[in-house]
Amino acid sequence: MKRIKRAINNFQRKEVGIKIILVTSASLSILAVFMIIAYIFRESLPAIRTVGFKGLFSFNWKPEPANPPAGSYGMLVPIIGTISATFWAILFGAPLAIGTAVYIDQMAPMAIRSVINRGIEILAGIPSVIIGWFGLTMLVPALRNVTATNGFGIMAAGVVLAVMSLPTITSISVDALRALPPELEEASLAMGATRWQTVSRALLPAARRGVLIAVILGIGRAVGETMAVQMVVGNANQVAWPWELFKPTSTLTSRIISDIGESTGVFRSVVYTEGLVLLIFAMVLILAIRMVSRERKR
Amino acid sequence: MRAKRADRIATVVFWIIGLVSISILLFITGVILWNGLGKAIQPSFIFGRPKGFKAGGGIWPMIVSSFYITGLALFVIMPISILSAIYLAEYAKDGRFTRFVKFCVDSLASMPSIVFGLFGMTVFVILFGWGYSLIAGSLTVALLNLPTVMRSAEESLRSVPVTYREASLSLGASRWKTIRKVVLPSATPGILTGTMLTVGRILGESAALVYTAGLVSRHVPDSLFDSAAPLAGYIWYVQTEAGAPDYRAIVDGSAALLLVMVLVINFGARRIGNYYQKRTLAGEKRV
Amino acid sequence: MYNLDYRLEVEGLTLHYGNFKALENISVKVPNERITAFIGPSGCGKSTLLRCFNRMNDLIDDCKLEGSVFLDGEDINGSGYDVTALRRNVGMVFQKPNPFPKTIYDNIAYGPRLNGKKDKLTLDGIVEESLRKAALWKEVKNKLREPAMRLSGGQQQRLCIARVLAVEPEVILMDEPCSALDPVATQRIEDLLAELKKYYTIIIVTHNMQQAARASDYTAFLMIEDEGEPGCIVEFGETERIFTNPEDERTEKYITGRFG
């Protein structure tokens, strides 16, 4: 027995040590989140101080890279650009994605189902520069021919972002549909409902929270997407509302990636402030998801 | 009979939607491969160096940079994410700390990659004075991909049956021994699949890398602190600058090559997943 | 000094899962080198009680214990008691066969390796001896390197018994070890039990009364008065007496099949 007792202490000491290592690793994520928020915030302070909220939230975007304090930095231009592009991305992408999810879950024959499933996964994995390059070389010229504009703008960005949020929304909607109890579908069909009636009146309403989460995540993807948007949105210093489809404009992300390399002083700080706005968007979306999923639990 | 007609129309509509989705993928991959594959398979292009404003540049340093960054990032991600996942799946009790960790992981996962780029530039490139470098880029994408790997590892660990843990513990194994000898080996295929998908994502990442690792590289990086230009970022850079007369061919070729690499890796990941599934199912059936 | 005839003793054990009281005031002495059966209707807490002997209830977060369980006179829930050493001394066979997704050999060698036995010859010896004791050696000696999952259910359960034996325990707990098996496989396990009791103290939980009557020397009958009430021991004694001449009316009702 004594031998056993001595072994105990070694064992327990080792387990405690391991637990400390594990907790430390898990805490690194906390540290990362706080560091990111803290540094982005710190770097945006000069802009918040010198340009001020009034200046930042205006429509006057006229940076002066050579003499930063002389420029105007109305972030509403890229903010509205982001909102406009995201609006069209979801308007195009969400119905297509949810429809694809219903198709995969309900209608597709087994063989096609796995092909489409795989296809959606592959689409999710295509690098954004490649989709951007596709947009720049195929989509923008096509729009140019059809519309007598230069082709860049909200429309091009919306289509590209729709393609990029399609896999996110589809796969999460499929999960939501799959998670429904099979009795639901059987009950509806057994009462003589057609497939479409079952989908539209029983399945989609029952899965609506999951589908809503899918759309929110799709919005997140669209808001944060950088390279593909930068390549097709035009990066012009003018505001474009959602209805101004073919007006070249900027989004938050396209401004950041275009300006970060060359800006100095307060201009550079404004770039970080744009990052801060993106972070706030992301946090709002997370809270939205939390609210939706908490309601579901009730 | 209106219901029946509506049903028929809906069926046709959903078939069209499904086919549109898949054709988008086929169209994009088709165009990229069609335009670029011819260039992408030329040895002088793959193994050559960029020539700035002159035609005929290659992309070898970028390909190597991409793989260096992927390797280094995984080197950082794997231990941290697996240890964190073990904590969350095996040790953590539902409490304030656990919920807070999960909230932070969720937050990290939802931050746009460009924000990681900004952070990496501020901290690794400027504050630490590393400049555009392999290490700055690798650490930045490591942070970016940490939450996804952590989550997939946690999921794989949770899918290991409780009965394995009970068996091991009842034989007198400590908790840690049980995890190391039974739980981790059973979760390995799942963790590997998640890791492969991450490799694909890192290879395709550009926004977080162009201003941390570097935009263009004349030579293969030879130290951690040497600037590196991963292929995806280089594609963006070349199309932006449009310096070389044959820049279009360079972008087409690079895009096709990158697409092929990402596709191969995604298919590989699937194969591991399927192999795993088949193996466990074969085992289960005979019980 | 503790009583050598009773290696395991339970005194006034009460167990809660959160607010639910699963067991109340259990006291029982488990005779050495005999087979003791715990019988009773499902949900009466017999498996929970079994899991108190090797502290498997530790895995459940909100499980609280009062009272004591003594192994060789020492309180196994006492502070500083080494759980891993306890579990090596008190092995367990589960309801569903649960081999590791490893080879047959590695399954058996798992326990010995934990105890630092690495030498191949030693391990080979332990594996063979354990499989022989579990009456599985003849069937698997030519496929030790094959996955254990390929064995039949009955073979897997005997493999799990061999895996326990390889750690050289003194007590073996069996939680309805035959409930997932067909009659032929069950018979083989019962034959094996008769062999094993010569060397080990065995506690078996079963809802199969014939099995308890056939295989055990002592029987404890547990039951709950009503849904949501805690389980308690109604009667404990030699199996033959419990089944032929029960003292308690409820025991008689149960074994003659009138409720439960």
Which characteristics define this entry?
heterotrimer, B: mainly alpha, MetI-like fold, 10 helices, disordered C terminus, C: 260 residues, alpha/beta, Rossmann fold, globular
Notes on the protein architecture:
The complex is a heterotrimer of chains A (298), B (287) and C (260). Chain A is built from 12 helices and 2 strands, in the order ααββαααααααααα. Chain A has 298 residues and is mainly α. Chain A folds into 2 domains: 2-41; 69-297, MetI-like fold (Orthogonal Bundle). In chain A, helix 1 (2-50) packs across helix 12, helix 3 packs across helix 11 and helix 4 (110-125) packs across helix 6. The N and C termini of chain B lie far apart (50 Å). Chain B has a domain at 61-232: MetI-like fold, CATH 1.10.3720.10. The longest helix of chain B is centred in the first third of the chain and has 39 residues, at 2-40. Chain B has 287 residues and is an all-alpha fold. Chain B is 76% helix and 0% strand. In chain C, strands 6-7-8-3-9-10 form a 6-stranded mixed beta sheet, with helices on both faces. In chain C, strands 2-1-4-5 form a 4-stranded antiparallel beta sheet, with helices on one face. The model of chain C has no long low-confidence stretch (mean pLDDT 87). Chain C is α/β, with parallel strands linked by helices. Chain C has 10 helices and 10 strands. The interface between A and B is large, with 86 and 82 residues.
Assess the beta-strand content of chain B as a share of residues.
under 5%
**Dominant shape of chain B:** globular
CATH architecture classification of the largest domain in chain A: Orthogonal Bundle
Helix and strand content put the structural class of chain B at: mainly alpha
For this structure, the CATH topology of the largest domain in chain A is MetI-like fold
The tally of beta strands of chain A, per DSSP, is: 2
What's the N-to-C terminus distance of chain B? Answer: 50 Å
The largest chain-to-chain contact, stated as pair and per-chain residue counts, equals: A-B, 86 and 82 residues
What would the principal axes of the Cα set say about the shape of chain A?
Answer: globular
Q: What order do the helices and strands of chain B follow?
A: HHHHHHHHHH
CATH topology of one domain in chain B: MetI-like fold
Based on CA atoms alone, the radius of gyration of chain B comes out at: 23 Å
CATH class of the largest domain in chain A: Mainly Alpha
Average residue-wise pLDDT of chain B: 88
- By CATH, the architecture of one domain in chain B is named Orthogonal Bundle
